[in-house]
Amino acid sequence: MLPSLSDIVATARVVDLPLRQRFRGLTFREALVFEGPRGWTEFSPFVEYDDVEAASWLSAAIDFAWAADPALTRSTVRVNATVPAVAPEAVAGVLDTFAGCRTAKVKVAERGQTLADDVARVRAVRDHLGVEGRIRIDANGLWNVDEAEHAIHALAGFDLEYVEQPCATVDELGEIRERVRYMGIPIAADESVRKASDPLEVARLGAADILIVKAQPLGGVRAALAIAANTGLPVVVSSALDTSIGLSMGAHLAAALPELDFDCGLGTASLLAADVTSEPLLAVDGHIEVRRVEPDAALLDEFSADAERTAWWLDRVERCHAQLEIMMSHA
To answer: Whole-model pTM?
Structure first.
């Protein structure tokens, strides 16, 4: 059942949180949070997403605030560190903010940088983590197949756990997976799951070894659980630079999975220089807790977006709510 728009906007607050380092071209992260019968929730699709895509994020927020939680199988979730496309000398400082994390996801293929920059960054991560650390790289689909093959060869010596979204399309993922199969480096799909009209296509076509699932883009915890159950592949639960409220949604998804073979990308509160709560979901001994998060009124006030940006987000919620009404009327 879809709550009314007035029920959503009654408690809605828009925040503008500073980041510790530039990430995805951002230095601040905007998000809208609101409260439902089950607690606080988050709606934070990136600003470039259209209303049809963003409507799935609103559906997820509503699901988390109104629907009962699924049965949980764990009370904490092991998480990875996330290393933006920083210079090698900045790597140690980034990793030190992810307390006890044994795994690092390293951003590569940053526009304006070179493969040599990626190699230097990954080398710095390996030096900091030691031989027992786990390293996964994420290209966000920015390589073509030949570039991906060349880059994976250049980075393979750092003992990669997997390569996330090296290329943009499902066909390209399938091709690069075949080209590097002999190297034993798995290919993970992210954008080919969360931005696809059919999130199971990549698995059905054998184009990936691992799926990245995110609660907000996939329409909520229960929708993501259904995808994970039907894929036949191991999954990694990740986030989209959420506040701790959004990370709580991802933690509930990860805690409800019967099997969780990989560390999850839910430690990204460490990338924020400020959060909506004084008790953020930061990694402790490499884990985050599975719990609901309550915002602090003082922090909501301190990091409140200005009137123009608040109005923009409230208009966006209204448009996405209308999209959900249309979708439900056609169901």
So the answer is: 0.96
